Amino acid sequence: MSNSSTVRWDPELIRRYDLSGPRYTSYPTAVQFDPLLSPERLIEAGLATADSDSPLSLYVHIPFCEHVCYYCACNKVITRNRNKAQPYLDTLYREMARSAELFSKGRLQGRQVDQLHWGGGTPTFISHGQMTELMSALRSNFNLRDDDNGDYSIEVDPREADAETIAVLRQIGFNRISLGVQDLDPRVQQAVNRIQPLEMTQQILESARSEGFRSINMDLIYGLPHQTPESFAATLDTVIGLSPDRLSVFNYAHLPDRFRSQKHIRAEDLPGPDAKLQILHDSIDRLLEAGYVYIGMDHFAKPDDSLAIAQRSRQLHRNFQGYTTHADCDLVALGVSAISQIGDVYFQNEHDMGAYTRAVESRASAVKRG
């Protein structure tokens, strides 16, 4: 990429580096995390290198989903039993109290939280009351902003939300929202077990706008079964017509030996490497033509979006939540498998739900490796 409005495409360079590697969206990559570093040592080193006067970014992982999307590689728990959420939240509150004590120095004199994100799983799996309670607990333990000037975002599955849900999210403090779309082609949706009519996404989008959310992101995935350059272009044109503030266009990595749900996807139904490359190339060109700025890798934003402004002013930063304008923030991540960045140290919580719960109950910390 030469700049945000033109892209130089070098097929020879792409072929040269067409090799398997760690997941490209995360840095440091998973192979660099050392399980032999003790949690105590990681936390101590993080505190020693952190700027206690700088603001914080908070991430909360809600792992539950009612339905499995076959492509998904996130850490999740598939269940229709909504009662499973409360014991997890109770454990999360114990971890939260300990993390606030370590990294925020308490509510009254605590470091201001300029960025907040709930991810999953499906954060809107939990009830409206539980979402309100969770945000209240965060406010009790951390110094959340009251002026709506922070970047407080949440991932929303339009199949798991309605206008009332969006109103509750706005009321408790969220001002940014990310909608999972992936693909609008019914054949693709059927193949990945995510039936989501366009009207469903439009209704949530309209609700978010009417409630005053100041930024709306949409997630798309290319490389899914039955996709072609032509079919994905049709999805992209419809999404551009919806005019989200940001777009994420992710590459699907087919790893059925690692992610059991991907075994439902037949390799012969997937577009080949050349087709995937064509989809990416066409998508970049189409989004630039539509006026979006290419932020980097798989992210696009409107020119007046804070990410595009940060890119122009060379203030753009990337952490485990993705691209951000908050380079000065330490990242405190809560929940199963969540990854924090404190000072010069990265550390990750236990990936298994049982191990996470036992770790928090025994030592109020779920840190496993870093």
The structural domain count equals 1
The proportion of residues forming helix, as a percent range, comes to: 25-40%
| Count of runs of 4 or more consecutive helical residues | 11
> What is the annotated CATH architecture?
Alpha-Beta Horseshoe
Average residue-wise pLDDT? 92
CATH overall fold name: pyruvate-formate lyase- activating enzyme
Note poorly predicted spans: none
**SS-derived structural category:** alpha/beta
The separation of the N and C termini measures 32 Å
The CATH homologous superfamily: tm_1862 like domain
In the CATH hierarchy, what is the class?
A: Alpha Beta
Summarize the main sheet. 10 strands, mixed
Order of helices and strands: HHEEEHEHEEHEHHEHEHEEHEEEEEHE
Which outline best applies? globular
Number of strands: 17
Strand content: 15-25%
Radius of gyration: 20 Å
Overview of the molecule:
By secondary structure, the chain is of the alpha/beta class. 34% of the residues lie in helices and 21% in strands. The protein has a single domain (39-369), classed as tm_1862 like domain (pyruvate-formate lyase- activating enzyme, Alpha-Beta Horseshoe), CATH 3.80.30. Strands 1, 4, 5, 6, 7, 8, 9, 10, 11 and 14 form a 10-stranded mixed sheet that branches. The protein has a 3-stranded antiparallel sheet with strand order 15-16-17, with helices on one face. Its cofactor is [4Fe-4S] cluster.
